[in-house]
User: Fold these one by one.
Assistant:
Number 1:
Amino acid sequence: MTVWTWIAVALVGGAGAIARFVVDREVGRRFGGAFPYGTLMINLSGSFLLGLVTGLALSTDALLIIGTATIGSYTTFSTWMFETDRLAESGALGAAAINLVASIVLGVALAALGRTVGGWL
Protein backbone atom coordinates (compact mmCIF):
# COMPACT_ATOMS: atom_id res chain seq x y z
CA MET A 1 0.00 0.00 0.00
CA THR A 2 1.38 3.37 -1.00
CA VAL A 3 1.48 6.65 0.87
CA TRP A 4 -1.05 7.99 -1.65
CA THR A 5 -3.48 5.23 -0.72
CA TRP A 6 -3.18 6.19 2.97
CA ILE A 7 -3.73 9.85 2.10
CA ALA A 8 -6.79 8.93 0.03
CA VAL A 9 -8.16 6.82 2.91
CA ALA A 10 -7.78 9.74 5.30
CA LEU A 11 -9.36 12.27 2.95
CA VAL A 12 -12.32 10.24 1.77
CA GLY A 13 -12.84 8.81 5.25
CA GLY A 14 -13.32 12.36 6.45
CA ALA A 15 -15.67 13.05 3.56
CA GLY A 16 -17.74 9.96 4.46
CA ALA A 17 -18.06 11.13 8.06
CA ILE A 18 -19.15 14.59 6.93
CA ALA A 19 -21.70 13.05 4.56
CA ARG A 20 -23.09 11.01 7.47
CA PHE A 21 -23.50 14.17 9.54
CA VAL A 22 -25.24 16.03 6.69
CA VAL A 23 -27.60 13.17 5.79
CA ASP A 24 -28.52 12.57 9.44
CA ARG A 25 -29.25 16.26 9.98
CA GLU A 26 -31.37 16.59 6.84
CA VAL A 27 -33.37 13.41 7.42
CA GLY A 28 -33.89 14.45 11.05
CA ARG A 29 -35.22 17.83 9.93
CA ARG A 30 -37.69 16.23 7.54
CA PHE A 31 -38.95 13.40 9.75
CA GLY A 32 -38.14 14.51 13.32
CA GLY A 33 -39.39 12.49 16.26
CA ALA A 34 -37.70 10.00 18.54
CA PHE A 35 -37.13 7.32 15.89
CA PRO A 36 -33.59 7.46 14.41
CA TYR A 37 -34.63 7.82 10.76
CA GLY A 38 -31.33 9.48 9.85
CA THR A 39 -29.20 6.59 11.06
CA LEU A 40 -31.53 4.10 9.41
CA MET A 41 -31.28 5.94 6.08
CA ILE A 42 -27.50 6.20 6.36
CA ASN A 43 -27.00 2.52 7.15
CA LEU A 44 -29.44 1.32 4.48
CA SER A 45 -27.96 3.52 1.76
CA GLY A 46 -24.47 2.49 2.90
CA SER A 47 -25.44 -1.19 2.67
CA PHE A 48 -26.57 -0.70 -0.90
CA LEU A 49 -23.45 1.29 -1.82
CA LEU A 50 -21.08 -1.26 -0.27
CA GLY A 51 -22.88 -4.04 -2.12
CA LEU A 52 -22.58 -2.04 -5.34
CA VAL A 53 -18.86 -1.43 -4.84
CA THR A 54 -18.31 -5.10 -4.03
CA GLY A 55 -20.18 -6.14 -7.16
CA LEU A 56 -17.94 -3.92 -9.28
CA ALA A 57 -14.95 -6.14 -8.39
CA LEU A 58 -12.55 -3.23 -7.91
CA SER A 59 -8.85 -3.48 -7.20
CA THR A 60 -7.77 -3.99 -3.59
CA ASP A 61 -6.71 -0.35 -3.13
CA ALA A 62 -9.88 1.01 -4.75
CA LEU A 63 -12.03 -1.23 -2.56
CA LEU A 64 -10.11 -0.07 0.51
CA ILE A 65 -10.56 3.59 -0.39
CA ILE A 66 -14.19 3.43 -1.50
CA GLY A 67 -15.53 0.59 0.62
CA THR A 68 -13.65 0.78 3.88
CA ALA A 69 -12.74 4.46 4.08
CA THR A 70 -15.67 6.20 2.41
CA ILE A 71 -18.61 3.90 3.09
CA GLY A 72 -17.19 2.62 6.36
CA SER A 73 -16.93 6.14 7.76
CA TYR A 74 -20.36 7.02 6.36
CA THR A 75 -22.22 4.14 8.02
CA THR A 76 -22.38 3.70 11.76
CA PHE A 77 -22.93 0.55 13.78
CA SER A 78 -22.28 2.15 17.16
CA THR A 79 -24.83 4.93 16.68
CA TRP A 80 -27.41 2.39 15.49
CA MET A 81 -26.88 0.31 18.65
CA PHE A 82 -26.89 3.37 20.92
CA GLU A 83 -30.10 4.73 19.41
CA THR A 84 -31.79 1.32 19.59
CA ASP A 85 -30.80 1.03 23.25
CA ARG A 86 -32.08 4.55 23.90
CA LEU A 87 -35.45 3.65 22.34
CA ALA A 88 -35.70 0.53 24.50
CA GLU A 89 -34.73 2.38 27.69
CA SER A 90 -37.41 4.99 27.03
CA GLY A 91 -40.03 2.26 26.79
CA ALA A 92 -40.38 2.38 23.01
CA LEU A 93 -39.75 -1.36 22.66
CA GLY A 94 -41.73 -1.62 19.41
CA ALA A 95 -39.68 1.16 17.81
CA ALA A 96 -36.46 -0.46 19.07
CA ALA A 97 -37.50 -3.80 17.56
CA ILE A 98 -38.47 -2.14 14.28
CA ASN A 99 -35.12 -0.37 14.16
CA LEU A 100 -33.25 -3.65 14.72
CA VAL A 101 -35.25 -5.77 12.30
CA ALA A 102 -35.58 -3.14 9.57
CA SER A 103 -31.87 -2.36 9.71
CA ILE A 104 -30.81 -5.99 9.47
CA VAL A 105 -33.37 -7.29 6.98
CA LEU A 106 -33.39 -4.25 4.70
CA GLY A 107 -29.62 -3.79 5.05
CA VAL A 108 -28.89 -7.33 3.89
CA ALA A 109 -31.44 -7.05 1.08
CA LEU A 110 -30.00 -3.74 -0.12
CA ALA A 111 -26.44 -5.06 0.06
CA ALA A 112 -27.48 -8.02 -2.10
CA LEU A 113 -29.28 -5.72 -4.53
CA GLY A 114 -26.26 -3.43 -4.72
CA ARG A 115 -23.95 -6.37 -5.36
CA THR A 116 -26.23 -7.60 -8.14
CA VAL A 117 -26.40 -4.17 -9.74
CA GLY A 118 -22.63 -3.78 -9.40
CA GLY A 119 -22.14 -7.13 -11.12
CA TRP A 120 -24.24 -5.94 -14.06
CA LEU A 121 -22.15 -2.78 -14.51
Number 2:
Amino acid sequence: MALGYEVKGEVGAADVVARHGAEAPLIVELKIGFSLQLMHQAVARQRLTDSVYVAVPRWKGRAGWKAFKANVGLCKRLGVGVLSVDFETGAVQAHSDPAPFQPRKSKPKAAALMREFEAREGDPNEGGMARMTIVTAYRQDAEKCARHLAENGPSRGRDVKDATGIARATAMMRSNHYGWFEKQEKGIYALSTVGRKALNC
Protein backbone atom coordinates (compact mmCIF):
# COMPACT_ATOMS: atom_id res chain seq x y z
CA MET A 1 0.00 0.00 0.00
CA ALA A 2 2.90 2.32 0.73
CA LEU A 3 4.00 1.83 -2.88
CA GLY A 4 0.68 3.01 -4.22
CA TYR A 5 -0.94 -0.40 -4.64
CA GLU A 6 -4.55 -1.18 -3.86
CA VAL A 7 -4.50 -4.57 -2.14
CA LYS A 8 -7.29 -7.06 -1.58
CA GLY A 9 -7.23 -10.60 -0.18
CA GLU A 10 -8.95 -13.76 -1.38
CA VAL A 11 -9.94 -12.48 -4.80
CA GLY A 12 -11.19 -15.40 -6.86
CA ALA A 13 -8.64 -18.22 -6.55
CA ALA A 14 -5.79 -15.84 -5.63
CA ASP A 15 -4.70 -15.28 -2.03
CA VAL A 16 -3.72 -11.64 -2.54
CA VAL A 17 -4.25 -9.32 -5.51
CA ALA A 18 -2.67 -5.87 -5.78
CA ARG A 19 -3.14 -3.24 -8.46
CA HIS A 20 -1.21 -0.06 -9.22
CA GLY A 21 -3.29 2.27 -11.37
CA ALA A 22 -3.97 0.77 -14.78
CA GLU A 23 -1.04 -1.69 -14.58
CA ALA A 24 -1.54 -5.44 -14.77
CA PRO A 25 -2.42 -6.99 -11.41
CA LEU A 26 0.15 -8.46 -9.05
CA ILE A 27 -0.76 -11.76 -7.40
CA VAL A 28 0.76 -13.26 -4.25
CA GLU A 29 0.17 -16.83 -3.14
CA LEU A 30 0.69 -17.43 0.58
CA LYS A 31 1.77 -20.64 2.29
CA ILE A 32 3.48 -21.63 5.54
CA GLY A 33 6.29 -23.22 3.51
CA PHE A 34 7.41 -24.16 0.04
CA SER A 35 5.51 -27.08 -1.45
CA LEU A 36 4.66 -28.57 -4.83
CA GLN A 37 1.11 -27.29 -4.34
CA LEU A 38 2.42 -23.74 -3.93
CA MET A 39 4.43 -24.05 -7.15
CA HIS A 40 1.36 -25.36 -8.99
CA GLN A 41 -0.74 -22.44 -7.75
CA ALA A 42 1.88 -19.87 -8.73
CA VAL A 43 2.20 -21.32 -12.24
CA ALA A 44 -1.59 -21.37 -12.60
CA ARG A 45 -1.76 -17.66 -11.66
CA GLN A 46 0.65 -16.86 -14.50
CA ARG A 47 -2.33 -17.37 -16.80
CA LEU A 48 -3.75 -14.19 -15.25
CA THR A 49 -0.65 -11.98 -14.98
CA ASP A 50 3.12 -12.00 -15.36
CA SER A 51 3.57 -10.57 -11.86
CA VAL A 52 3.17 -13.60 -9.61
CA TYR A 53 4.90 -13.99 -6.23
CA VAL A 54 4.93 -16.65 -3.53
CA ALA A 55 5.25 -15.58 0.10
CA VAL A 56 6.48 -17.91 2.86
CA PRO A 57 7.75 -17.47 6.43
CA ARG A 58 11.38 -16.44 6.82
CA TRP A 59 13.72 -19.41 7.17
CA LYS A 60 15.37 -20.47 10.42
CA GLY A 61 18.97 -21.64 10.75
CA ARG A 62 21.59 -22.57 8.18
CA ALA A 63 19.72 -25.62 6.91
CA GLY A 64 16.58 -23.54 6.53
CA TRP A 65 18.46 -20.92 4.52
CA LYS A 66 20.00 -23.58 2.27
CA ALA A 67 16.57 -25.05 1.48
CA PHE A 68 15.07 -21.58 1.01
CA LYS A 69 17.85 -20.56 -1.39
CA ALA A 70 17.32 -23.69 -3.46
CA ASN A 71 13.59 -22.96 -3.69
CA VAL A 72 14.29 -19.37 -4.76
CA GLY A 73 16.37 -20.82 -7.60
CA LEU A 74 13.46 -23.05 -8.61
CA CYS A 75 11.04 -20.11 -8.55
CA LYS A 76 13.39 -18.06 -10.75
CA ARG A 77 13.29 -20.85 -13.32
CA LEU A 78 9.50 -20.72 -13.23
CA GLY A 79 9.47 -16.93 -13.58
CA VAL A 80 7.90 -16.55 -10.13
CA GLY A 81 8.95 -13.95 -7.55
CA VAL A 82 9.68 -14.83 -3.92
CA LEU A 83 8.86 -12.94 -0.72
CA SER A 84 9.73 -13.95 2.84
CA VAL A 85 7.79 -12.79 5.88
CA ASP A 86 9.26 -12.32 9.34
CA PHE A 87 6.42 -13.25 11.69
CA GLU A 88 8.06 -11.51 14.64
CA THR A 89 8.42 -8.08 13.00
CA GLY A 90 6.01 -8.37 10.09
CA ALA A 91 8.80 -7.33 7.71
CA VAL A 92 8.53 -8.56 4.13
CA GLN A 93 11.66 -9.08 2.02
CA ALA A 94 11.74 -9.62 -1.74
CA HIS A 95 14.33 -12.20 -2.83
CA SER A 96 13.51 -12.33 -6.53
CA ASP A 97 11.07 -10.70 -8.94
CA PRO A 98 9.09 -12.38 -11.72
CA ALA A 99 11.14 -12.39 -14.92
CA PRO A 100 11.87 -14.69 -17.87
CA PHE A 101 14.62 -17.13 -16.94
CA GLN A 102 17.60 -17.97 -19.12
CA PRO A 103 19.84 -20.58 -17.44
CA ARG A 104 23.54 -19.78 -17.51
CA LYS A 105 25.57 -22.67 -18.84
CA SER A 106 28.86 -23.58 -17.19
CA LYS A 107 31.35 -24.64 -19.84
CA PRO A 108 33.92 -25.92 -17.26
CA LYS A 109 31.28 -28.08 -15.51
CA ALA A 110 29.95 -29.36 -18.83
CA ALA A 111 33.50 -30.21 -19.92
CA ALA A 112 34.17 -32.01 -16.61
CA LEU A 113 30.96 -34.01 -17.06
CA MET A 114 32.01 -35.17 -20.50
CA ARG A 115 35.57 -35.97 -19.38
CA GLU A 116 34.16 -38.28 -16.72
CA PHE A 117 31.74 -39.79 -19.26
CA GLU A 118 34.50 -40.52 -21.76
CA ALA A 119 36.97 -41.81 -19.17
CA ARG A 120 34.58 -44.19 -17.41
CA GLU A 121 34.60 -47.76 -18.71
CA GLY A 122 31.18 -49.29 -19.25
CA ASP A 123 28.21 -48.37 -17.06
CA PRO A 124 29.05 -49.75 -13.59
CA ASN A 125 26.49 -47.74 -11.60
CA GLU A 126 22.86 -48.55 -11.00
CA GLY A 127 20.20 -45.92 -10.39
CA GLY A 128 19.70 -45.04 -6.72
CA MET A 129 23.22 -46.01 -5.62
CA ALA A 130 24.56 -44.18 -2.59
CA ARG A 131 27.10 -41.48 -3.42
CA MET A 132 29.82 -43.33 -1.49
CA THR A 133 29.46 -46.38 -3.77
CA ILE A 134 29.42 -44.56 -7.12
CA VAL A 135 32.10 -45.96 -9.42
CA THR A 136 33.97 -43.10 -11.10
CA ALA A 137 36.65 -43.20 -13.77
CA TYR A 138 39.15 -42.30 -11.02
CA ARG A 139 38.09 -45.31 -8.96
CA GLN A 140 38.32 -47.58 -11.98
CA ASP A 141 41.90 -46.40 -12.59
CA ALA A 142 42.77 -46.87 -8.91
CA GLU A 143 41.41 -50.41 -9.04
CA LYS A 144 43.63 -51.19 -12.06
CA CYS A 145 46.68 -49.96 -10.15
CA ALA A 146 45.67 -51.93 -7.07
CA ARG A 147 45.16 -55.14 -9.05
CA HIS A 148 48.56 -54.74 -10.64
CA LEU A 149 50.14 -54.49 -7.18
CA ALA A 150 48.08 -57.46 -5.95
CA GLU A 151 49.41 -59.58 -8.82
CA ASN A 152 52.99 -58.27 -9.00
CA GLY A 153 53.81 -57.07 -5.49
CA PRO A 154 55.50 -53.73 -4.68
CA SER A 155 56.19 -51.86 -7.90
CA ARG A 156 57.64 -48.63 -9.20
CA GLY A 157 55.11 -46.03 -10.22
CA ARG A 158 56.33 -45.94 -13.80
CA ASP A 159 56.06 -49.73 -14.06
CA VAL A 160 52.44 -49.57 -12.88
CA LYS A 161 51.85 -46.81 -15.42
CA ASP A 162 53.33 -48.85 -18.26
CA ALA A 163 51.48 -52.03 -17.31
CA THR A 164 48.06 -50.48 -16.76
CA GLY A 165 48.13 -47.56 -19.18
CA ILE A 166 47.15 -45.23 -16.33
CA ALA A 167 49.19 -42.07 -16.95
CA ARG A 168 48.48 -40.75 -13.46
CA ALA A 169 49.31 -44.03 -11.67
CA THR A 170 52.16 -42.65 -9.54
CA ALA A 171 50.18 -39.55 -8.54
CA MET A 172 47.16 -41.68 -7.62
CA MET A 173 49.16 -44.04 -5.44
CA ARG A 174 50.95 -41.13 -3.80
CA SER A 175 47.71 -39.27 -2.97
CA ASN A 176 46.17 -42.59 -1.81
CA HIS A 177 42.58 -41.30 -1.89
CA TYR A 178 41.02 -44.64 -0.95
CA GLY A 179 43.78 -45.81 1.42
CA TRP A 180 44.63 -48.73 -0.87
CA PHE A 181 48.35 -48.02 -1.28
CA GLU A 182 51.46 -47.95 0.90
CA LYS A 183 54.76 -46.31 0.01
CA GLN A 184 57.56 -48.83 0.49
CA GLU A 185 60.40 -46.56 -0.50
CA LYS A 186 60.97 -43.71 -2.92
CA GLY A 187 58.85 -44.32 -6.03
CA ILE A 188 57.79 -47.83 -4.98
CA TYR A 189 54.27 -48.66 -3.79
CA ALA A 190 52.54 -51.75 -2.41
CA LEU A 191 48.94 -52.72 -1.76
CA SER A 192 47.73 -51.90 1.76
CA THR A 193 45.52 -54.05 3.98
CA VAL A 194 42.60 -51.77 3.09
CA GLY A 195 43.39 -52.26 -0.59
CA ARG A 196 43.48 -56.04 -0.25
CA LYS A 197 40.13 -55.96 1.50
CA ALA A 198 38.65 -53.77 -1.24
CA LEU A 199 39.83 -56.25 -3.87
CA ASN A 200 38.89 -59.26 -1.74
CA CYS A 201 42.40 -60.65 -1.93
